Each structure stands twice: as C-alpha cells, then as structure tokens.
Amino acid sequence: MRVRTLQASTQKETSIFRLRLRILLAIALVATLSFSLLAGCQPQATAEETPMSEQEVSAGLMGPVTFTDDLGNEVTVEDPQRVVATMGSFGKIWELAGGTLVGISDDVDTYSGYALSSPNVQRVGAFTSIDLERVIALNPDFVIMTGLSTGRAGTGSQLEFKETLEASGITVAFFTVTVFQDYLRMLDVCTQITGRSDLFETNGTEVKARVEATLSQVPKVADDKKPRILLMTTYSGGQQLLDAKTQNGSILSFLGTVNIAEANPSLLKEFSLEAIIEANPDFIFVQPRGENAQEAARILEELTAADPAWNQLDAVKNGKFITLESELFLYKPNERWDEAYKMLFDYLYKEGK
After folding, report:
1. How many CA atoms does the CB half-sphere of 39 hold within 13 Å?
2. Of the candidates 196, 212, 228, which is a domain's last residue?
3. Which of 148, 226, 290, 306 has the least C-beta neighbours within 10 A?
4. DSSP 8-state assignment for residue 75
5. Is the dihedral of CA 263, 265, 271, 273 positive or negative?
6. How many domains does the chain have?
7. For residues 169-181, average pLDDT
8. Judging by DSSP bridges, how do beta strands 283-288 and 228-235 pair with one another?
9. What does the pLDDT read at residue 123?
C-alpha cells in the first residue's frame, strides 16, 4: 500500500513538472514571436537606405575626380584649394566653374574680360615663360597648364614643367582650348572638380543653346552659293591665312562659309597676294595679333596698297573687309562664345553689317 502511494505521488510530481515545463516553453515561444514581430515592423537600416548628413552629401560631391586631360594623362584631383593657372583664359574658366586661384600668368592683365574675382592672386610670369619657382613657392595642390606651344614662333612649351611639379607632389593637368567645343570640355571637367554643375549649366549649356540658336538661322544653300571667305591674322612679322581648325576659322565654318585657303592649301603655307586676288573672296576677316596690332595693320595696308588690284576685290569694294575685335576673336571669349558666333553671323548674313 505504501509503495503504491509513493508511486502515485511520484507520477503526480512528474506530471506537474512536465506541465510547468510546457508552460515555460510556451511563454518563451510567445516572447520570441512577439519580439520577432516587433522587429519586423521596424524599418531596416541598410547602408543604401541610411540617410546621409548634409555635410556627407557635400563631401561625396567633392570627392576625387579622375579624368583624362587633353594630352592623354590620367589625372585625379580632390577638392583643390590652392590652384595656379598658367594661362589667363584658363584661370577665368576655373573661376567660371566656381573655383578660386592663388596664382595666374601675367597675360590675365591684358584683357579686361579676364578680370579675376579671387583675392590676392599672385603672378607667375608670362604664359610663354612661366617662372616655375614662383609657381612652387605658392604651394599649390593643382596646376592648370596649356598643352599648346606657347613660345615665340611656337618653340616654347609648358610640358617641360610636368615632371618637376609632379616630383614636388603637385597635381598637373594640361588643356588645349582652341574652339568652342574645347571650352565646353574644359568647363565640364572643372565644374566636376568643384562640384558646381549649376555653373556648367549657366556658363556652358546655356551658352551652347544660344550658339545653336544662331546656327539654326544659317541659310541652307548649295556649296557654290555659300559665302567665300578669307581669314587672316596679321602680326609685325607678316601675315598668315587661317583654316577651320583655328578659333575663328571654326566659327566661320559652322556658319556655312567656304574658306578659300582650304580650297587652295598652299595659301596656308605661304601668303600670296596674287592668289588671293585670283580667288576674289566675298569677305575678308582680319585679326591683328601681338602687342603691336597697329603696326601689323600698317604693314598689311602697305602690302595691299602695292597692288592696285587689291581694291578691286569684291570684299574690299563692298565693304566686307572686316577687322575683328580682340575681345571676342583674339582672346578666348569663354562664356561669351555665343556673342562671337552671333557677331560673325551678322557680318555674313545681315545687310549693312
């Protein structure tokens, strides 16, 4: 009897233990499910969804920019603060992109259109003979140079400074800006570096739209009906005819003209008054070049006066001998390229111009 009572008691305790264990497991399961459901209702903070602070967004826009410069060099620039430009027009483009300068070549002072907004910009010599010591003394982190030959008679080049600057830990980029498309390309790179896409819109895209508006007005005629033009530059050493690869030649080509020097390539190598008289262009555009433009114009006048047939040219007789102003046609017009296109369009197609 006692054995049976003990067995019954043991079975009862076991049953109670098992019941309690089941209750505890059930409570734990409910708690686990509740926590899971609660967690599932919360937004998941992934790396892509985490909002960036305003400063982090700015830092992202101003991060490293890698591009290929106009000489084929791969260049990486990150938020440069001390920039030197070794050509006046390049310095102005950098400012148009929202940047500031600490150094600039002396030629920036020869044209009012290159007036700088950066304070206390130091001069580093003529763009044809940059003073490298003065450049390095400014402790720049980015130097913008020209890939064009810069010396007298095309003998000088800024390329010789590349290795020295890079050995000093200075980033260097070379640009070649001759025609409007070159300007847009350089401005695009500069605004990417500064993070100012809005300034590319203002000083690039909107200018391009105005250029295209002018080009849309060019008459569509057969080649033999297009204006035949002569484009020349004069300097104290003589005269030279220019083709469509040059600043003004490119504009005139887009404006639907026929350049007589391209029809007779020998004129590009050697100025021939006789060949010009024979070609008899409808328009003659002259761009005085150099420090003594008046002297260059005088030499041209003496040369043409020596042959009476010059005054019988259609361009001369009809008042289509045009001297181009330096602001738009000698210096790079930058944000005023549209004005250059419009002025030449008016000369070609507007009566009385």
Report:
1. 7
2. 212
3. 306
4. E
5. negative
6. 3
7. 97
8. parallel
9. 97
